[in-house]
Amino acid sequence: MIRPLALAVLLAISATPLAAKESTVSYKAALDDPARPAADRERDAARKPADLLAFAQIAPGEKVGDFVMGGGYVTRLLAAAVGPAGKVYGFQPAEFIAFKKQYGDDQAAVDAAYANVDAVAGPFAAPAFPEPLDTIITVQNFHDLYLKPFPEGTGARASAALFAALKPGGTLVVVDHSAADGSGTSLSDSLHRIDKDAVVAALTGAGFKLEAENDLYRRPDDPRTANVFDKEIRGKTDQFALRFRKPK
Length: 248
Known about the structure:
This protein is an alpha/beta fold. 38% of the residues lie in helices and 20% in strands.
């Protein structure tokens, strides 16, 4: 029989690798990267990049993906965090590029600026990452899979594709704007928000295991009733951060 004190010691030891990885890796160099534009640095206070990288457990030498890279804010951070021995694949949906040329221009600019970044394009529901990845991050974009212009089932297909893109044991980190509890994906188009439980259901349905949740973007004062682009709430929305793991 294991005594309570011995059990506590065993639990502490078993928890050490994960905690140590999150607490001892420094992301200061990534934040101080001179290639980061001033506009990115101005957003750091709200976007808490060091906390995000720590929650995602990004380490030097890893192969990572930025699913829907947008203007490249996260992609640039990942490039500096994984270092020259690592690789970052910045994915931009072909549908986004067709809708607005700037998406393609931004992707090409980040690709050209970093030797360890490769641009990846393709259907939103079928990101064609060229090699198995350690981690994928997607920030404020999962709800887009449920926008009206995209066919029904896009979310399920993308969830399966993200699962397939990761190595066994790899992780997926999702950050998105919180919708009202119980609203599912119904507010994705009108408010650009999604119910956290709907994300969990989609990704566990694809085979992921929910490993951790972080409150770093929690804003309890957000009533979650406004469009995230409304000037009164933009940049101040309540958001959830979830880390999923692909079983080994």
